Amino acid sequence: MIKKWWMESVGYQIYPKSFYDGNNDGHGDLLGIYKKLPYLKSLGVDLIWICPFYVSPMDDNGYDVADFYDVAPSFGTLDDFKKLLNKAKELGIRIILDLVLNHTSDEHPWFMESRKSKDNPYRDYYIWQKGKSKGLPPTNWGSFFGGSAWAYDEATDEYYMKIFSNKMPDLNWKNEKVQDAMIDVAKYWLDLGVDGFRIDAVAHLARAPFVDAEPKDKPVVLDWHKFSNLPDVHIYLKKMYQKVFKPYDALTIGEVGGEANIESAYQYSAFDSGELNMVFNFDHNWCNNVFDIDNLENLKTDVKRLKEVFNKWQVAFKQRGWLPLNWLNHDQPRLISHYGDQMYPLESGKMLATALYLMRGTPFVYQGEEIGMTNYPFQSIEDFNDVSSINRYYDLKRENKYTEAEILFKLSINSRDNPRSAIQWDDTKYAGFSKVKPVVNVNPNYIEINVKNNLENKGSLWYHYQHIFKLRKDPKYKELFVYGTYEQVPTSDELYVYIRENSAYKAYVINSFSRENVTYKLKINFDSVLLNNYENILINDDIITLSPYQSVVLVVKKEQL
Ligand code: GLC
Fewer CB atoms inside 10 A, N or C side of the chain? Predict the structure, then answer.
């Protein structure tokens, strides 16, 4: 059996702008992360993924990088980062960074050169094409952030490709100089002492031939097949693996959007892939009707689908690879608002944590998830900062089909600004995030939902997360919960039950996704209840009656079976 430190780790994702403001200028920063390391340690975290903090004009909050080798002043300095890294090492916490390979900022010196003239040495670092005809881009491909995937540049009368925002020109990975330059970037941070990378938008490094997407008569079609999971991506990643990831033994987790299926996920991250260690997929992120409703009360999780998705990935990766386990990241709604139940936030929140983080894989908690933070109550377009939300607002306005309130509702349920509001540390002004007015939103519910309250109450969500991670680290159960097998048990739709098993133990992870009491028949003499989000567990003969969103973990010693 393959065993690695990162399989035994508990990960935590930090979006630095909204995590903690260490120098009280209203902006989250590296010093803030440094100050909160002991907090993360006490939760059980020993691996942090930090979203970009490189020099950037911040069109996409740092995913638009203008200098891969330095820290944006709003986040601090390179010395702050070194200090953070040292302290983390002292505490036994490893750090991985976001490696943005697909694009740079339009303010990156390479692009500033590239756009100057067709014969500039950097021209070929990016993807330039002539327009189809006057005023028409080379193809009708749409971009993830709205509008065309091409932007016109007057200086040379050509278009550059940009599958995200206009200020994020796509790098041309066919160019070996680009490949080598990005290998150098990765080496630089590994030499400084980071342990690896979450690789941004990695699925998109190669493009299909520049032929219009169907329907061809539509001016803009977002067809991500044109730039997702194409064969050349694997050539580039194999080279990166040989030149940098392997020699440094770096941990690599690729963000694989655009409908990664199991086969392509194997290509990226099977143990023998020679590319990456894991991939984040998005199959489980939208298993509800969030896009179809006009009233939050109608939001409903499709538990059957969610179970199918989890099962599909767990089964596919049981021998051939390893998975990260995450409910959300900085691009998705807050967990409690998305899959939780507003009437039972604590119970449903604890159940969701149990259900996911005892699977086989490496947990990645998204900042604030552990205290039950919720979506932000947006009132107007001024409350949004995310470029894709703002673009979508204007696109919907242009459609002329919806009222202002309807547009705001559509944006607010899945806006990427939801997970980016300030972390709620306590109930003082600005949620204890900063002493001055923060540059990010502060959810008014910080008075009740905050870290301090969670830590003062042993029954809080926070302690439940801590308990789960203790189980994963407990010398007695580590083999079971980290390396044991996973098997889903067929049940009614509102129940999600799976078994983790190793040579010594068998654990039943039993989760109810229902607001009603539900019963589950289980014919075992379990030894102990390892986890329960209620005080009691009601068992009569072989029948367990689960309260709303109850989840219990029962364990049996195998010699007793
Ligand atoms: C990834 C990031 C997202 C970013 C995009 C472009 O999807 O998660 O936040 O906007 O890549 O870099």
Answer: N
